[in-house]
Write a structure and sequence with these properties.
- The structure holds two protein chains of two kinds.
- By secondary structure, chain A is α+β, with helices and mostly antiparallel strands.
- Chain A has helices spanning 8-18, 26-37, 42-51, 56-63, 85-89, 92-103, 145-155, and strands spanning 77-82, 109-110, 116-121, 133-135, 138-140.
- In chain A, strands 2-3-1-4-5 form a five-stranded mixed β-sheet, covered by helices on one side.
- The model of chain A has no long low-confidence stretch (mean pLDDT 93).
- Chain B is built from 21 helices and 14 strands.
- Chain B has helices spanning 3-19, 31-36, 38-51, 93-102, 151-156, 161-169, 172-182, 194-202, 224-231, 233-247, 261-276, 307-314, 343-355, 357-361, 394-401, 435-440, 459-473, 479-496, 503-518, 522-525, 529-546; strands spanning 24-28, 57-61, 73-76, 82-85, 113-115, 210-215, 251-257, 292-298, 338-342, 371-378, 384-389, 411-416, 423-425, 449-454.
- In chain B, the strands form three sheets. A five-stranded mixed β-sheet of chain B has the order 2-1-3-4-5. A five-stranded mixed β-sheet of chain B has the order 11-10-14-12-13.
- In chain B, β12 and β13 form a beta hairpin.
- The model of chain B has no long low-confidence stretch (mean pLDDT 95).
- Classes of the chains: A alpha+beta, B alpha/beta.
- Bound molecules: flavin mononucleotide, iron/sulfur cluster and FE2/S2 (inorganic) cluster.
- Flavin mononucleotide (FMN) binds next to β9 and α20 of chain B.
Amino acid sequence: MLSEGVTLRAAIRQVLQSHRDGAATILSSLLALEDALGYIPPEGIEEVAELTHTTTNDVWGVASFYPNFRFDPPCEHTIEVCWGPTCHLLGAPAVVKEVLDALGLANEGDTPDRSITFKFNTCLGACAQAPVMALDHHLYGRLTPRAARGRVEALKGSPAHRR
Amino acid sequence: MTQAYNSLKQQALAHQRQAASRPRVRVGTALCGFAAGGKEVAEAFRQQALGLGISATVSEVGCLGLCYAEPLVDIQLPGGPRVFYGNVGPEEVRGLVDAHIRGGQPQWDRALAVIGSSFDAYATALDDLDMMQGQVRIALRNAGHNAPADLEEYIATGGYAGLDRALSGMTPQQVQEQVAASGLRGRGGAAFPTGAKWRFLTGSPGPTKYILCNCEEGDPGAFNDKGILESDPHTLVEGMVLAGYATGASDGVIFIRHGHDGPIERAKKALEDAYRAGLLGKNILGSGFSFNAEVALVGESYVSGEETALMEAVEGKRAMPRFRPPFPAAYGVWGKPSNINNIKTLAYVPEIVSRGGAWFASVGTERSKGTAILCLSGAIQRPGMMEVPMGMTLRQALEGLAGGVPGGKKLKLLQTGGPLGGVLGADQLDIPMDFDAMARAGAILGSGGIIVADESACAVDLTRLLMAFCQYESCGKCFPCRLGMTHMVEILERICRFQGAPSDLQLLEQVGASMAAGSLCGHGQLGFNPVRSALRSFGDEFKAHIEGKRCPAGVCTGEYLTPCRSRR
Ligand SMILES: Cc1cc2nc3c(=O)[nH]c(=O)nc-3n(C[C@H](O)[C@H](O)[C@H](O)COP(=O)(O)O)c2cc1C
Ligand code: SF4
Ligand code: FES
């Protein structure tokens, strides 16, 4: 994360420098920035274009294609709920509903206080434990709506997650 | 045997002998074990052992396939049997450490299974578990047994012997002949003969040529690619170097979706260790053959698993398929000749080279050799991962190994081979699992994912969900796919809201036909499969929604929240 006194642009350069092993591509650079900052600021787009000898237009083209990227600073926590067919069959819709309700959200997005982001995931890879969700990349399976709500409530107010 | 390999092997065996003098605890922490709480259980074992001053090795292992029993733990005392305990909670750990490790008393009444022939009287032998019956474990031979990030354990259990054999006594041509003789066909979906594919690359000019390993695994319901990466990544590394040697390639890229941290970390560690041991890089095992490999991450995109889209993503662009020709063997990633194989395909190669193509070809059916690596999930007693000979019937796998549908309910449908694969009805269970028989039945074996739905599911609702996935994941390059998928989702949504018209079924057929005819890649070409196969087996259910304005299963309420591409 950003340490005190370092400008955003300097931090971005630092991240991109340390990821230059092998062929740095637009995508690999963007993923490295997303991992380090949790989002892609406009300065990030510019720096990636410079590093990869492309235009900001090229970089936006890639950044807007993959749903990994966000373009404003991240919330403290992320919740991903699987909507894959196995999870769907075993009760994901009720889990989604309960989690959204606990967050006061109607769909994907950030809570108004910007503490938690809710996202769908097409398959978290633990289908045998369906329904599954991930809180800050920690997987929880065999969920009931009640258990899911309990996890979400416990997440609220817990210290911010950093990768 | 090369001298270099011999010394690696001696080191590895010494390391194993030393490790065997301490109690060992294995805890499954692949994605399924993780989701069941395996990481917490492993941590509890470490804490308890530390607290009691016991020196035990706690290994986080991959997936044995018994996902229904996760968190799965096995404990082995020096010279003793391996005793498996299923569904272990962190609160039980203290008792197990105390009784089994400190007290030397396995808790037989709590045990799920055992490995150690003289202990069969106390617990079921692991191989006698219903879920293990009839399995032939080739690609999964080490999964759940070996510590995945431990090169020495891999070598001590026979790893890199195939590579050593090839480099010390076989020409590239001979390696290729063995792979051709094995009858191996690609496990990424299209079932193309691997030997033939490798010949294309061999004929292309070097010096820079790529072996790409596809671990994108975007199919929901499939977790065997990630399972191999997490359980035994060196099998893949060895298979890849062998593919490089056989085809004269210089570079390998392992392609994994960003976000699956466990599989990514284990793959990276395996590469690092292989480099350090001289199993990758320059002059491998002193043979003069050199090969480099790295991991490339891709953003979330299902279509990035398509071979030409994958090459675009490796180059850092949008994962949109290319026009063919030129084919990858002539013009692949960075414009260089490339070969793309699924990780399962490559994971078979070390054993094929070690034991011979004819041995591999002795497993399976006439035209589908070897094994099928299945991921069973959904309404099934024992969800998990299994490796069975090609030709086993769906019924045998689902009812025999996995225990059938739980709760006294009836099986309704199977969704196989990923969202594009199609659905099968309960009357199609006697189909043998091989590429051709499955295709004749209107489904595909594909990646090996099998999702089971019982009678409480609605076939129309599930079809709507599968099409929503396909729409969400269309890369948008060609309009028959991009708009066709969107149109089909709209139609299916209105059928699910009981606002469909009888003409909607023909409309679906029409849109599907234009998608099949006018799409660039398999995503659009096969995108009608889920609808077509559901209409064939469950036409009455569609009619009930359209004409009767009701959902026989009571699932459709008109209310659902499903992401759509427009959010991008
Ligand atoms: C839309 C689409 C998605 C695909 N996704 C994957 C995938 O996730 N993994 C994979 O191995 N193959 C995938 N494939 C198949 C690949 O294009 C390619 O055929 C395969 O990786 C070749 O490996 P094989 O010869 O070992 O089967 C996909 C194909 C299409 C059309
Ligand atoms: S068929 Fe669909 S996924 Fe494939 S290239 Fe065309 S738009 Fe993209
Ligand atoms: S379908 Fe939900 S984890 Fe795979």
